[in-house]
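Hello Y.,

Per our agreement to keep a running log of every chain we model this quarter, I'm adding this entry. I've kept the format consistent with earlier entries: sequence first, then predicted structure.
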Amino acid sequence: MRSLLLLDPAGRTFATKEKILYFGVGAFFISLLLPDMPVINNIVIGGIILNCFLYNSLAEKKQLLWKRKEILCMILFYFLHIVSTFVSVNRQWALEMLVLRVPLLVFPLSIGLIVIREQLKDRILLLFSVIITLTALACLPYAVYQYHEFNDAGYLYDDSLTALIRKQSIYFALLVNLTLFSYTYLLLKPSFRIRYKGLMYAAIAFLLVFHFMLASRIAIITLYSGLLLFAVFHIIQKRAFLKGTLVIAGLLAGAFLLFRIFPKTLNRFKELNYTQYQFSHHGLESHYNMQLTADQWNGANLRLALWKCGWELSLRHWLLGVQLGDKQEKLMEMYQEKHFDFAYQSNRNMHNNYLDVLSTFGVIGFSIFLLGYFVLPLAGAVKDRDILAGSIIIVFAAALITETYMDRSIGCLLLAFFLSFISSGRKEHV
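Predicted structure for the entry above:
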């Protein structure tokens, strides 16, 4: 607890501006996870922006901007939103989206233009991980209460598991992924002193189960793929063949056991067996808590149909896109053209952030987006041999395949914060 409050000897050595940033980031995540309290979250973000503005000189910020090409691309990408707003036919909708995506500008301009020392970065990661762990610990009893109240095991899965904080499970599953990677990074870092390692291992074990109950396919695939790759890397680098083999066997056995204990999560993966679709089909939408049949729309075939529409829309406007304010309207027209009544009546987005950007801004905007958010940051992580930064980037890159993060406030906040945070911790000298 003393280390979390920066009351330990090492914590006291941080400068005042670093302590303000540390507690500000902690407050940001707490406010983000509070149910239906956006005003508090906005106030906290405003405090972080002000602190970052005073954190270093304008000359230093300018120098960092030219060094961090990814931040330059992020800022340019948002200015593309501004231009697109003014050329959109539906300017009112464009302005609403512009406000929703403000984090894509303010975090690169604030956190992206400061230098966060490695010691402070590690403390922030620990604080973030503890906040996510405690939030999961708070959500589980409420879900169990709902389960007993209604005698329905469905309350222990998916969005019902995060009903207490009123956040979609897909976003919380991503946060749990980042937490598990952060815990692993801190445990394996010799220079980071952890007093209560047993608690951290217990938190990891709990979060692995909680993560599985969240039933997010892409998050589960990303997590276990990452763990398997890490085990293989450990075997090759350390030549620890026996230890690595045992880790891989443990992961496979653990996954099998979780599927047996929590069969409703398996239902989400069974949907992958039913990928056929017809746009004109008017069947029900499947749910993890109901029997799965071939005549339903499910998370797999529905996304394939949405992606087909998004891809065709992108091809028709491949150079400059359809513009920010007109994207959803053009997508609805595509649904009508294909008699995709199910998607039209429920006003579905593309469920793919890459297609969303490509269809909105064309190949030019899409290229700027990829450079700023993934290509350049990943290249920097490889150059610095920063496995954690690379893992965070890949986690987001995978998450954006099945969801349109930029259509949700929480999606914009998480994407902009973490990618800017990665850049602020780069191993560079001003």
